[in-house]
Design a protein that fits this description.
CATH architecture of one domain: Orthogonal Bundle
Largest sheet: none
Mean pLDDT: 86
Helix content: over 70%
Shape: rod-shaped
CATH class of one domain: Mainly Alpha
Low-confidence stretches: none
Radius of gyration: 61 Å
Distance between the termini: 58 Å
Number of strands: 0
Oligomer: single chain
Order of helices and strands: HHHH
Strand content: under 5%
Structural class: mainly alpha
């Protein structure tokens, strides 16, 4: 059975019917693509904000780390100075043990009084030479004892001062260590927060990349439908051109027929001697018949 050819009019109707869902689906895809783009851009802004936040946290962490390093330096210096004091203390203790073995009986003031008493006796009393020499020897011995006592006193005073300084340096080192530990903990918190922020930024970036991929795929689908819509519209315009061409041809044929009818009617009226209308006269004149 011979297939009946579809008329241009029917083709236009069919294409218009097909064009409606094409445009609807294309518009739907474009709207979905816009939503993807908006969400992707929002995620990019959030990623940018998180990276900026991570950079600020890193600056704070680095500043704290600088303080930690400075405190470590101060703590180590305090420890070193304390060790120097301790080493000096050990030296003085050893020296004190040696002096203590030489220490005479009696205290410093007692020896000083004995020396003063003998000196006074030598200066104010006329003594035999032998006795005076004995007294002078006693003074020398006592002065030697006095020197030992003074050395012991000086060493003890220095030891006391060293112990005080050592104790203070110990407190300083401990205080610095506690502050250092506190700052190190703070630095660790900043570091963990920075890593968490960067992890969140990376996860959001992955999500943004996936959405961008979906955006590209959706735009590609929409573009295909748009191209198909354009092809339909071009076909419709072509068929409409055919219809117009056919209509114009028919119009021209109809006008030609009317012209011929008008000419024949004018000739008939002319033969009958009837009065011609202007249009009738004009037609006959153009033909050279009047």
């Amino acid at each position: 059975m011979k297939k009946i050819s579809e008329s241009p009019k029917h083709k236009i109707e069919r294409l218009n019917q097909e064009l409606i869902p094409l445009k609807e689906e294309r518009n739907k895809l474009n709207l979905e693509a816009k939503k993807c783009a908006d969400k992707r851009n929002a995620l990019h802004n959030e990623v940018k904000s998180l990276r900026k936040e991570a950079a600020n946290i890193k600056e704070k962490r680095d500043a704290v780390n600088e303080q930690v390093q400075e405190l470590k330096k101060l703590r180590d210096e305090a420890k070193n100075r304390r060790k120097e004091k301790r080493d000096r203390t050990l030296e003085l203790k050893e020296k004190l043990r040696g002096l203590t073995k030489k220490r005479p009986e009696g205290n410093l003031r007692h020896i000083e009084r004995e020396i003063e008493k003998i000196d006074w006796k030598i200066q104010t009393t006329s003594l035999p030479v032998k006795e005076e020499e004995n007294l002078i020897n006693q003074v020398r011995q006592l002065e030697a004892q006095l020197l030992v006592q003074k050395q012991i006193k000086k060493v003890k005073e220095e030891l006391l001062e060293l112990r005080t300084k050592e104790r203070n340096l110990g407190i300083e080192a401990k205080t610095l260590h506690e502050k250092l530990a506190e700052l190190a903990e703070q630095s660790q918190r900043f570091h963990e927060k920075m890593l968490g922020t960067l992890d969140k930024a990376r996860n959001l970036q992955v999500e943004a990349d996936n959405i961008h991929q979906k955006y590209l795929e959706t735009k590609q689908q929409a573009q295909k439908l748009h191209q198909k819509s354009v092809e339909h519209q071009e076909k419709i315009r072509a068929y409409e051109g055919e219809l117009k061409e056919t209509a114009d041809k028919r119009q021209a044929e109809r006008e030609s027929e009317l012209q011929k009818e008008l000419e024949e009617r004018a000739l008939t009226k002319l033969k009958r001697g009837e009065k011609l209308m202007w249009e009738e006269f004009k037609i006959l004149a153009e033909k050279g018949l009047v």
